[in-house]
Amino acid sequence: MAARAYWKGQIRLALVSIPVEIFSATKSGAAIAFNQIHEPTGKRIKYEKVVPGVGPVDPEDIVKGFQYEKGSYVLVNDEELEAVKLESKKTLELTQFVDYDEVDVLYYEKPYYVVPADDLAEEAFIVLREALRRTRKVGVGQLALRGREYLVSLKPCGRGLVLETLRYADEVNKARDYFRDISDAKPDEDLLDLAETLIERKTADFDASKFHDRYIEAVQDLIERKRKGATIHPEEEEAPAKGTNVIDLMAALKRSIEKPGAAPASEDKKAPAKKAAAKGAAKAPAKKVPAKAAPAKAAPARKRA
């Protein structure tokens, strides 16, 4: 069965209109759904829609209402909402173009695939796609989807285009409110070299299929064990130790490079490491890891746009 288009309309660029269809690019992953149960009887709790003084009501009698003051509502039906005139309900007009990496990742919300609606639209569709690709630009416009108007971006994706809904400025918290207490201190160069080496060691092509939801799997295992009558004994997780010493960080980074994934040393083993590291630091700067044990120093990280 062919996927159903999420939206049908046209992309407009000046005097050029391109009929397109939009499809959701994502789907819901595995999820565990729990019901609320009345423990003494083991029966499921159900909910009814009721009106005070009236009791349960039929779904056919329920309409939308906007409360403009306490206890007073303006009633609106679906036909009236559908009749609201908004050009972006059928047309996505590209009103601006920005550099490919100019839109902060915080604004991106949900992706959709965009394809030409028919063979006649394909030529103009391909021209727009390749023009965006060559200029490394992203088209920006607004589009009405199911009850609200979204800010959206449009960019090439393989043979097609990807439309992504964006958050408006007032929907994104200002980063400075959270980062202002972080100091402007420059990191120690030796520590930075070790961190870069570790990053280089773990660098690989991204493959989403290698990752899976371990929490869902663990909950499914828990449910299966309880279903078979197993007694569960919850274990308290030990809080990870917080490192505050630069020498500890140096030792931890070195151990990470020598034995990737190794468990942290116990507290009684840390003391000699601290002492040795401190002694070495007093005589001379920490030595870099030999070429045999680690790859060449990685290039400095690029600055964010």
UniProtKB/TrEMBL annotation:
Annotated keywords: DNA damage, DNA recombination, DNA repair, DNA-binding
MF-aspect GO terms: double-stranded DNA binding
Protein's UniProt keywords contain Transit peptide: no
Annotated TM spans: none
Subunit record text: Homodimer. Interacts with LigD.
Domain Ku residue range list: 54-183
GO BP: DNA recombination; double-strand break repair via nonhomologous end joining
Similarity annotation: Belongs to the prokaryotic Ku family.
Region of interest (Disordered), residue spans: 258-305
Pfam families: Ku
The keyword Oxidoreductase appears for this protein: no
Protein name per the record: Non-homologous end joining protein Ku
Biological role stated in the UniProt entry: With LigD forms a non-homologous end joining (NHEJ) DNA repair enzyme, which repairs dsDNA breaks with reduced fidelity. Binds linear dsDNA with 5'- and 3'- overhangs but not closed circular dsDNA nor ssDNA. Recruits and stimulates the ligase activity of LigD.
InterPro entries: DNA_bd_Ku70/Ku80 (IPR006164), Prok_Ku (IPR009187), SPOC-like_C_dom_sf (IPR016194)
Gene3D superfamilies assigned to the protein according to its UniProt record, in alphabetical order: 2.40.290.10
